[in-house]
From TrEMBL:
Any one GO molecular-function label of the UniProt entry: metal ion binding
Biological classification of the source: Eukaryota, Metazoa, Chordata, Craniata, Vertebrata
The UniProt record lists the keyword Repressor: no
Organism per entry: Larimichthys crocea (Large yellow croaker)
Any one Pfam family match given in the protein's UniProt record, by short name: Flavokinase
Reaction(s) catalysed by this chain's protein: riboflavin + ATP = FMN + ADP + H(+)
Cofactor: Zn(2+)
Protein name: Riboflavin kinase
Stretches the record annotates as Disordered: 149-170
EC code(s) of this entry: 2.7.1.26
Length: 170
């Protein structure tokens, strides 16, 4: 996938209330402004990479890119599970991510909750292991994660695309 690694950031918004947190796998959702900038070659599926909330530490993450039911599945959604236990929710904060690799396509599990949980824990293990590769570890230290705008309200929707252009142009 030629667009990887892919850098982006945006405010964490409320998701579809699918109950990810109840499954033990909360997923932080990006707004349309971030989703709309995704390059066409980044298809639906599960990705892994690095993420940081605000000016916080950089953690491993897995991201699901799927079709957004709010838009009758014509637009994508981006949901990031940060592999870290946070003390509090972080709605409204800026989430910065770099997607570095692809794990698998999206699957439809219907009501097979057990299978879903197992699949996601496998994805998390795969992400953790792959991110230990030197080529991926170095992205954790990328300047992208130390140049987070200080306030979510001060970030216009174009900020994410500007940083993407800069970061992905290198
Ligand atoms: P929603 O439908 O609003 O996305 P979720 O059940 O998916 O609800 O929970 C997502 C929210 O949980 C995030 O927006 C964030 O504020 C919080 N959260 C807490 N820990 C994490 C984590 N490790 N990864 C992602 N989000 C987390
Ligand atoms: Mg969610």
């Amino acid at each position: 996938m030629k667009s990887l690694p892919y850098f982006c950031r945006g405010e964490v918004i409320r998701g579809f209330g699918r109950g990810s947190k109840e499954l033990g796998i909360p997923t932080a959702n990006f707004p349309d402004s971030v989703v709309d900038n995704l390059p066409a070659d980044i298809g639906t599926g599960i990705y892994y990479g690095w993420a940081c909330v605000g000016n916080g530490d950089v953690y491993k993450m897995v991201m699901s890119i799927g079709w957004n039911p709010y838009y009758k599945n014509t637009k994508k959604s981006m949901e990031t599970h940060v592999i870290h236990t946070f003390k509090e929710d972080f709605y409204g904060e800026i989430l910065s991510v770099v997607m570095v690799g692809y794990i698998r396509p999206e699957r439809s599990y219907d009501s097979l909750v057990e299978a879903l949980i197992t699949a996601i824990s496998n994805d998390i293990e795969e992400a953790k292991a792959k991110l230990e590769l030197p080529e991926h570890l170095k992205l954790r230290k990328d300047n992208f994660f130390t140049s987070v705008p200080s306030s979510s309200s001060a970030v216009p929707s174009t900020a994410a695309s500007t940083s993407q252009t800069i970061m992905n142009g290198h």
